[in-house]
Amino acid sequence: MSGAKVTAAALRRITSVRTPPSSSKTLTTTCTRKSLPNRSIAIPKPLRQVSTCELKLATPLLLCRKSSDDASTKDGGLNRTALHDLHVGNGGKMVPFGGFSMPVQYSDLSVGESHKWTREKASLFDVGHMVQHRLSGPGVEAFLEKITPTSTASLQANHSTLSCLLHPATGGVVDDTVITRLGPELFYIVTNAACKAKDIAYLSQQIEARDTSHGALDWEVLDNWGLIALQGPLSAEILQRALETAGVQDVDLGSLYFGQCKHVSLNLLSTSSSSQDNPVLISRGGYTGEDGFEISIPPSLTILFTTHLLKAGGKERLRLAGLGARDSLRLEAGMCLYGHDIDDSTTPVEAGLSWIIHKDRRTAGGFHGDETILSQLRPEKDGGIPPRRRRVGLIVEGAAEREGAEIVDPGSGEKVGTVTSGCPSPTWGKTIAMGYVKPPLNKAGTLVEVVVRGKRRKAEVVKMPFVKSNYWKQAAGTAPG
Predict the structure, then answer these.
(1) Strands, E, within 324-454: which ranges?
(2) Cβ 318 vs Cβ 122: under 8 Å
(3) 280 and 304, same domain (yes or no)
(4) Can you give the residue range of the structural domain that contains 451?
(5) What is the pTM of this model?
(6) How far apart are alpha carbons 48 and 318 in whole angstroms?
(7) From the centroid of its chain, how far is CA 422?
(8) 8 Å CB contact between 231 and 126
(9) Predicted confidence (pLDDT) per residue in 329-386, tens digit
(10) Which residues constitute the signal peptide according to the record (predicted)?
(11) Is 113 in the same domain as 62?
(12) How far apart are CA 155 and CA 458, in angstroms?
């Protein structure tokens, strides 16, 4: 979710088609590029491998083009989500982010006030700039287990998990992602907007290189779909009310726990069949550490359902929130921002994300970068090679430090690490940060210093999250927990 520019191509649908033995394999791609007329181009295979460094310079795919409706429009060269006019109409201050025009805050609340509102009540974030995918087919489990450390075979239907797309050999993180199983051979995946060009190239190459003995693999990029995040302690109450007033009577959100999802058909259109045919996907989770939901919405319902949800919440309980509050909330929750706290050179172990490497994968391996990653997990006495750096949380005295600030040894002044994210914590009134340091300085309680505007300020390594998470979990009869 960094602010890097994305490619001008709005990529639509990519399907790997199994062909007769006598013909070459074909990758069929449907997309729209605004500067070109709609036309189809047949291109022979195989695809040329594209290196990471090339992705900044060229459109990374060879394309077979078809016409397709595109709900997004341009705003000074930036893409717009379907809710752009709603943001502007409600006093949203728009800024470039991930190739989109996005609200950083609104006129009714400052960033700090919006942050606290989310912790105490509920906020609605437009995350329609994120990239939504559907992957399906008889080989989809094996494919995902090759490119991620997730045990997709053991992931239950309508359950989600955080994961990472991994580079071969190095185990570096191509992008962080949420993977949801919707059916026996159907997965829903969300990736970052600013990584779209890189992710599309990566997935295209991996699909082309995969073992095709399992059969065809279908990949759909849902560019037109809306995605909103309802976050805060009042989220469930507000969403339950919104569903009931939209004609949904059989959904009890109290039994939908963190990491679970459910399709729901709404009755908001003049013709109910349209709503029935295009249900929304409600997933319990989010990026703030609070209880909440991320809701994937068909194009025909995005504006309608979002305004309906805001009306159901009422301004005394629910407000729109922007990127500013989203960033401070996620930092308090100890969550990574791609391009800052994790990148292509970072392994999940270095980033403190070892928990996403499922138990059976640690034994069997079989995923990209497994040799490097599993070696980092093994003790040195067993031949392991520990990471040279670890992500940590920091409490820093005084002014907020900037990304890239040096972390130094208090005695010698030697550089021992680098800050990757930092801000004043609206909850604690202290400066918090994340960064990487050399082991064993990653242990909680270790004292270091951070160089802020040329001055060394005292800092302490602390455990994350900085603020206790309040997810709605099924644990010993208590939720959230």
Answers:
(1) 390-396, 406-408, 415-424, 431-437, 447-452
(2) yes
(3) yes
(4) 390-481
(5) 0.84
(6) 49
(7) 19
(8) no
(9) 999 999 999 999 999 999 999 999 999 999 999 999 999 999 999 999 999 999 999 9
(10) none
(11) no
(12) 44
